[in-house]
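Hey team,

Filing this mostly as a record. A colleague (T.K.) asked me to run one chain through the structure pipeline before their review meeting, and I want the input and output archived in the tracker in case anyone asks later how it was produced. No errors, nothing strange. Just documentation.

Input sequence:
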Amino acid sequence: MAAPGAGADGAALQPYQVLRAGRQAGAGGAARAAAPAAAAAAPAPAPRGRGRGRGRGEGAAAAGSASEPDEDESESDSEADAAGFDTEPRRRGRRGRGRGRGRGRGGARGPRQMELPEHVSRMVGHANLLYASNKYQEAADLLREVIRQVPNLADPYHTLGALHEVLGAPRDALNFYIIAAHMTKNDVGLWVKLAVMSTEQGFTRQAIYCWSKVLARRRDDFDARFARAQLFAAVGEPWRAREQYGRLLSASPGHPEVVKAFVALLHEAGQLSRAVDVLEAQLSNHHARCDLTHINMLCDLYMALGQYDHAVAIINRSELVFCRDEPLPIDLRVRRGACHAHLGNAAAARADLAELLALPVVDDDGESYTDLYLLVVSEAARVGQHALALPFAQRLMGAPAGTLEAPEQWALVAGVAVAAGRRDAAVEMYEGRLEALPLQDERYIACALALAQLHADGGDAPAARVLLEHLDEALAAHALALPEGRKQQLAHLVTKASLQLALGQREAFAASLAPQFAELLEQAEANAALVAAANKAAASGAVPRELVRALKRCKMFARAGGRKGGDPDGDAEAGSVFAGYASRDRRRPHIVAADAAAEALLRRARAAGVRGADTGAEESDDGSGAAPGSGGGGDLPAELAALAAAAAADQEDLPDLTRDPQLYSCFVELVHVLMDLGQAEQATALLARAQAVAAAGLAGRDPSWWGPSAAGKKKKGQRAGTPGPGDGNASDWGGGGGGGGGGGPPGAAAQREEAKLLREGLRLLAAEVAFRQGRAEEAMRLLKSVLPRWPSSWRAWSLYLNITGRLGRTQHWMKSVASLRAKHPDSLPLQVLAAHADVASGEHAAGIQGYAAALMRLPDEPLLLLCLGAAQIDVALGRGARDRNTALLRGFAALHSYARHRGPGAEAETAYNLGRAAHAVGLLHVAVAHYERVLALADAAAARGAAADGAADALRGLGLADGEQQPQRGEQEQQQKQQQEQQQQQQDMELDAPAGEPPAAQPAAQPAAQLRALARGLVREAAHNLALIYRGSGATELARRVLVTYLTV
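Output structure:
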């Protein structure tokens, strides 16, 4: 697609070709086309102006009037500083004073021509003849001699640039050309050539500088401004690019290529609504300059904003306007089909998408339609139409190698196949990918984990275990490539461990994650110690404040990859001939001195071996809190050594346990699993270290720091008590493992609040661990600090009741509930506990009202229905009951509703509770039926167990492989037991959010041992009550038989 002014007319192409070309070229197509276009433009003579009275000879370089400052010239100077060029120092004159104010009105003077000696002129001419005769080496030697004698002459530099360009040395040619351009500043054509060459060689900022020189002399040069705007976007300065695009649209309203580039920039910045406004204005005011690429972009924006009806309408209108004699392009047809799918028009969606199925994913000419196939799959899956997306997903699965390369794309296609009932196709696709990928590929572990997850979800646990064991072996042998970042590595390991836990491999889960969390917490403690020591040294006043700020700036620039326009290692801009030359330094003298001192201190610290990873995390014996490893700085004072250690430490961006919910929940699971496996000491140690890291993060927070900025000034309009930039806290020194974080942007407030809640969750977890270890008093002390902040946590209040029950403080919890209930009237757990307290104190009416109000919010909770039924029956059995029959009817209705919601899996429990209620009321025939049902269920369970044991004995008697069959059965029973325990941990040991709703009303699975003990107790209770009924009715023989059968030890 041609750039503006390139000579090619976009309207001459067919709309389909324009659309396909725009889709293939991508965002960088216009940027690559604009530079050759600008290079081909004929250099126009620089307009003459009056000058600004700064001195003689400056009027020829002015491009504007005397009263209007030249913005492009100032931008050129700023870019010169960024690229490392030495611009000509400005002559400062006083406006309105001095003799030169009115000079030059009749025309600006040009630069004086240099009078060359005769022999130098002959040398230059002879060198040009040698160059024309292709004797390049002799011409180069002669031109260098000319430069040695007359270094201020531009012609030999220009000729040397052309010579090296012919010899295939573009870097040297660029260097000579740019010297010549600075000597002849008004040669606009040479600046254009330099801008193009700089862009081709990767000197982006140098290219911006050259385009700024062009615009300083030709302010209306459209191609130069357009190319510079694209380069601004390429170097990460979108605000300057948007400004340039705005000036281009003001100069040429409705220019199609400028609108496309501007909209693409707004889309990358997330300003979708503004991008829509720009395109809609283009269609309304400049419809003759629109093409189908504008329609395609507008349709994508409408779809991103969820305005699918607008997208369908604009495509239908464009089909009538742009495609009268030819079909609608496949891009727009597919988008219209996806919009119809969102709008529920299945027939229209299939009609539009059928044309894409007639095309291969990659045709014989190399044309790829992968993006359109992925668009259909993602949009159809988003609205749940997996049957519609399945044919496209199957085409992608069978696409040639190299079509789908990203694990995210694999997951999307596999998810559609599984949802459509083709799990086998997804498994086959992942197996093929796994066979094709080597172990050294970073995508191997993601592919293997996804395949194991598919096997586990499909019930093929052995295949999933085989994959996980293969991954463990590869990790142990260091043959598996992991992502470079610590966060990505830990995310893969957490996913693998979670799969092991889901498969019942609790020992493997603990063995794989415990060392990872121990290492993570150790690094976080070391970082927290470095940060604490640095903050203490900064607050002591022993180090000048400017030096502290300079060290923080060094740390910030190290994170950002160096100063803008500086000379970082490996920077492509460092290859320019002017890199490192005396550039203008706009910093104040005291800032320059502080930065130089900080850099010298860091070099000295690094030379002495002061590293964050090499320093210990322990404080000194005298409790001074000096920086770890402060003695490694030679004769540096303790405060300076602490600051240097924090600034010079290469602290990796560690995952934050208190800011990552997935990592946090996995840590909670690990602590519970370690407790269940009898490794209480390891669990307690991990939990204590996690709490120490969280506490260090809170203690290291400094409210005067607003973010990782080194500017020491307050923002305009900032209040005195609000955080300000540049005074220091943990984030200054890169202490990512400490959590905390002081101030920050407005969006960081929610993150800090969430981190604080997770730290309180660690305290709640510590209370649970202490309670399980029998330390009830310590558990109560930890829990009291959590309950006021977590009034809606079912888990916290359940633990509180367990602790008070063990301590025997039944009256204490009633008072706590009453006081907190007044503070948090919307808390559902407190409402239920208040109802329990009312019933326990004899206030049944208030308790029934509380249960009824709770049922309005949780209508399907079996526990609330059981409590309501029991309270109603207690009211009916009381002495002062007014309407006994109505209370009984309500009570039994609630109990039967409770039995229905509990389901068939808890039939014995519900039968016993119904029988006990009927027994208390005096409906003995109803109670006998329910008790006998409990005993019948127990007999059936015993019969099933005996049959299983008999089958095992029969297999042994037949001489079958006892070492093969029986262990397999035992392994299956152990896996079932572990899965039940895991479900119990997920439901009973899950941390609730402070203001979240309680878990879903499902019967919590319990470990097998607890279930068996509960079943035995339930059967004995039912047998005892049934025997009492039999004995009371005179059937002593039946009572004796029941007692002998079920209550004999």
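Quick notes for T.K.: The CA atoms of residues 232 and 240 lie 6 Å apart. The chain has 43 helices and no strands.
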